Amino acid sequence: MSRFAHRFTVFAIVITGLILCAGLAWERGGAWIGAAAVLAALVLLGCYDLWQPRHAIRRNYPIIGNMRFLFESVRPELRQYFFEGDNDGEPFSRAQRSIVYQRAKREMDKRPFGTQQNVYAEHYEWINHSVAPTHIGNSDFRVLVGGESCTQPYEMSVFNISAMSFGALSGNAVLALNAGAKKGRFAHDTGEGGISRYHREHGGDLIWNIGSGYFGCRDEHGRFDAEKFTEAARQPQVRMIELKLSQGAKPGQGGILPGPKVTTEIAAARGVPQGRDCLSPAAHSAFDSPITLMQFIARLRELSGGKPVGFKLCIGHPWEWFAMVKAMLHTGITPDFIVVDGAEGGTGAAPVEFSDHVGVPLQEGLRLVHNTLVGAGLRDRVRIGASGKVITGFDVARMLAMGADWCNAARGFMFAIGCVQAQTCHTGLCPTGVATQDAGRQRAIVVPDKAERVYNYHRYTLTALAELLEAGGISHPGDLRPQHIVRRIANGEVRLLSELYPTLEPGQLLREEFPNRIYAVAWPMARADSFAPNPMPAAA
């Protein structure tokens, strides 16, 4: 009741004021008639706010929610975000949020008076253009995922919805995301919270994310259940299986959903008892070494009926990643794909120290994964996805140039369905109904309207990617290379990303030709039979 009152306090005060003023106007007339008329207009506005379908904040905060849009309309567009923000990168995320809103709502995202970024700032990046631009007729770029052992490969978009669980997101948010994915023919990652009824309702393509809790395919002790997995994985809507080893928000850490938050619907999706604490361990129990990891991947592929199976990780100790590659070489088993999650990613709540200081950022992690697979002679057998603050068409282009085959986005699609980064996800008090299980709050999301915005955001981001490629004289995203992206690294000094992130030659690691100290030290430490390293050489 207190949460209800918190959202509708102003509306209730206005209604009460209208009743009082109407009585006084009847008795005394004069100025009270004008006051009653003003309050009546506000009540009508509040009623309209409650039922209009486009603005979630106004549906949850009638009358007072209009102040946000008033302030937006009178400020110089994004000026404070670019020129008055702090230096931690947040101003640019706000600017990207504005781009998402405009594309989702099909508003013009072109602005006069040149760039609003400091082009002389350190780390500023751009793509070089060509005097012979290309023409791309279709921006629905796709990549085929599925190796030689896969009998049901999946042709996926180069831009998809990243892992966000039902339970972290509301049912209406999941419905809107999946309906948009269905219309745009792109993939929707379930997150590790299992496949809920909200994922199934619209029939959009799903990537089933399986974490250490094995939600949706676990027995009563929390261990992997092959029979439950097979039943769910063979559903036509499930197109790929993603084994989550770690995530960018809090790599190396598990989690717990307290019992009071385990509702009937969350319990059904995860296959856990209602009202009891739901644990996600820090480590998997289905495998304990790189070799058994590869064997488990092969087993999942067989149980799923030959669908693409891969894993997602945020890079940590390099020898652990190298150990996985050595296990691929030792067993001959390769995942169909690997999703590299950057430490800067993560839309859910995480400890500040983990968010800020644990895990490898996306660009470095992605390049390490790509280079290692090339150096091991495996790159043509494994597709690579990338996630971690990928929001705009340029973000996608940069990641593809760094070695990714496709990109996933979480916060961008959250922005598309109304997220305003209130950062109250863990409280259940999300003002737009995106990250809450409060039925009253999530009614603010009108699914058909927000599904169309999800579709628009995806469509126009790929259109922007196509326009960047055309300007660069490039015909397809697969042709992007690090030399196409330029970065200012200091005042007066710029570098191509190909200079900052050199590429290994095919088979170079097999010849033990190490390009830098990371490989020279960590590759010999890696062992296929254990995640624990061999002793570090004394010279290191």
What does this 3D model show about the protein?
By secondary structure, the chain is α/β, with parallel strands linked by helices. It has 2 domains: 2-74; 142-500, Aldolase class I (TIM Barrel, Alpha-Beta Barrel), CATH 3.20.20. Helices cover 41% and strands 12% of the residues. Helix 6 packs across helix 18 (447-471) and helix 11 (290-303) crosses helix 12. The protein has 20 helices and 15 strands. The radius of gyration is 25 Å and the shape is globular. Helix 15 (393-401) links the parallel strand 12 and strand 13. The strands form 4 sheets. An 8-stranded parallel beta sheet has the order 4-13-12-11-10-7-6-5. It has a 3-stranded antiparallel beta sheet with strand order 1-14-15. A two-stranded antiparallel sheet has the order 2-3.
Shape: globular
Record field, number of beta strands? 15
Indicate the low-confidence ranges by residue numbers: 74-92
Mean pLDDT level:
87
CATH class of the largest domain: Alpha Beta
For the record, the count of structural domains works out to: 2
**What's the helical proportion of residues?**
40-55%
